[in-house]
Each structure stands twice: as C-alpha cells, then as structure tokens.
Amino acid sequence: MDIVVGFDGSSPAMKALSLARTYAKAFDAKIHLVTSLKGGSGERQGDIDQAKNDLKSAKKLVEDDGIPCEEHLLIRGMDPGEDLVEFAEEKKANSIFIGVLKTSKVAKLLLGSNAQYVILQATCPVITVK
After folding, report:
1. How many domains does the chain have?
2. Do residues 34 and 72 touch, judged by C-beta distance below 8 A?
3. Residues 26-75: pLDDT tens digits?
4. What is the CATH number of the domain that holds 113?
5. What is the predicted pLDDT for the residue at 105?
6. Distance separating alpha carbons of residues 38 and 73, to the nearest angstrom
7. What are the Cα distances from residue 31, in Å, to 25, 36, 46, 68, 111?
8. 85 and 117 in contact (C-beta within 8 Å)?
9. Does the chain have fewer CB atoms within 10 Å around its N or its C terminus?
10. 64-114, pLDDT tens digit by residue?
C-alpha cells in the first residue's frame, strides 16, 4: 500500500502527516512525502533549500516510527495540486493526505485552491486535515 502526503512544512501539512503515519502503521503502508514547487524563474534557491530541509525532517519522523518513507521534491512546472495528483497516479497510490487552510471564497477564486484540485481530480481517495 502506498500513501502520498502533500507536504509543505505548514501546520496543516504536519497534521496530515501525523494522520498518514497512523494509517501507514495500521495498514503496513509506505509513505511518499511530496513537495511541489512550480520552478522556473520565480523559484528562489532558498525556497528549494527550505523544502529539502522540511522533507528531510518529516522523513525522519516517519522512519523513527518504523514506516518506510521516500521524499520527493517535484519541480516540474506544474501547479502543486496538479503535480500531486499526477504523482499519485504515477505511483498508483492508494490514498492522498493533504492539509487544508481555511480561506475565503474570494481568495479561492483569485488564487485557486490546490486542495480543491486534488479533491476533485484525484483518482484515489483524498483525506484532508485542517
């Protein structure tokens, strides 16, 4: 069993990871920690380094529980929601865990919602955590 966790180091992402660890233990699953950065000229090296450090710290938490884990920093030119869904399909994941932030309808309209994209487009179950 493979579980994909959308991870950006935020509090909601940490909560999603915590729940994913519980599921992984119960179902003897492997966790794929995924951070997606769009890339291109808008990406700063500091953001990439921070993402690598966040992934490394999260991977240690998972492995300390005895759960197999892989970290993936994706910089493929896609929006994070699209990237996460495509990655889950590539890995034939059984589920995706993501943390969500409460935002207004106007913010979602103007900025889009990666979580909404994942929920609507993923071909496997999506577990959201606030």
Report:
1. 1
2. yes
3. 999 999 999 999 876 667 888 899 999 999 999 999 999 999 999 999 99
4. 3.40.50.620
5. 62
6. 11
7. 10, 16, 26, 6, 29
8. yes
9. C
10. 999 999 999 999 989 999 999 999 999 999 999 999 877 666 555 444 588
